Every structure is written in structure tokens, then in C-alpha cells.
Amino acid sequence: MTETATVRRSRITPEREAELYAAVLDLLREVGYDALTMDAVAARTRSSKATLYRQWGGKAELVAKAMRANKPSPDFDSADTGSLRGDMHALIMSQDDCTMEQNSALMRGLAMAIHGNPDLLKAFRELIIEPELLETRRMLQRAVDRGEIREDNPAVDYVLHMFVGAFVARGMIDELPPTQAFIASYIDAVVLPALGVPTD
Hints:
Elements: H1 2-10, H2 14-31, H3 38-45, H4 49-56, H5 59-70, H6 84-93, H7 97-116, H8 118-145, H9 159-174, H10 180-195
């Protein structure tokens, strides 16, 4: 049975998977997480519910994977510019303002659902938060190895928190979406000084 399930899973092409993820995100924007059902996803994508459950297990995993697929994964290796400031700015430039705004809106819409749904929180931690933490630590370790920052600087443990805070605060305080220019200036004014990196 496991072999059969594995074979069936492998039949979904990358193109079909991308279509499914796009449909899930469209539904999320339209109705929100709580009102999104596997029935609605099946109808929107002309799939069977059985196929969706076999492939993704449930709504939480499907939504988290759709978010992960939709969020361009920053290429931390190719963003190795030789300086931490250069690396951070290169990563910001990997997403245009429109993509940032869409991702920020989706995350705002899911924030309450994440706190009220342990399965969704678990899926987000595993598929989105933990990979981002790992890659951020790799980027910071390169800066430590280059002698740019001290490994024992307490701010090292809060870099991802600072970035998330910037995205959330931009909408709440300024009532504006995050942009490349805003995040770049935030990096120079807040993140790098906290790490002891000069921005001049």
C-alpha cells in the first residue's frame, strides 16, 4: 500500500503541483484559512479529495507547502557577496515589491489561524520557519568566519525576528506594504547596527 501511494504521489507533475498551489493561495485570499476546505480545493483544481489527502495529508500541510512554493526561496549561496551587508541586500533584491506585498498580505491573513491551529503552526515551523532559520544562520556564520561580526553578539539569535518584525510593523504602523527600499533601509538602520556592522 505504501508503494502504491508513493507511485501515485509521483504522478503529480511539477506543473500540476504549481497549479494546485496557485489555486490554494487564490482561495486563501478569497475566503481565509478557516473557511478554506479540501472540498473547495478539489472543486477549484478539478481534483479528487482522496488525491489531495494522499499527496498532502491535510489542509495545514497543503497550505504551508503552497506558501513555501509561492515564496521565492532566497538563494543564500549565490548571495554570498563577500560582506554581510551585501548578502542581506542581495537577498532583499531577490523579491520584487509586488511579491513582497502579496506574501505579506497572505501572512497577515494566516497569522490568527496559525495561533489557533496546532497543525498549521507545526507545518509552518517545519516547512517555512526552520528552513529560513537554518539559512539565516549559515549567512551569519559566513560573516563570523570573515570576522565581520562576533559569534557571541546576542543580536545574532534575533536576526530573523527582526526581519519578521519589519514586515509586520510596516503594515501595522505605516499602513504600507513592505518594499525593497523599506527593508534595505531597515537593514542599514536596525539589523546591521545591532550586529555591530558599519553601514557607511
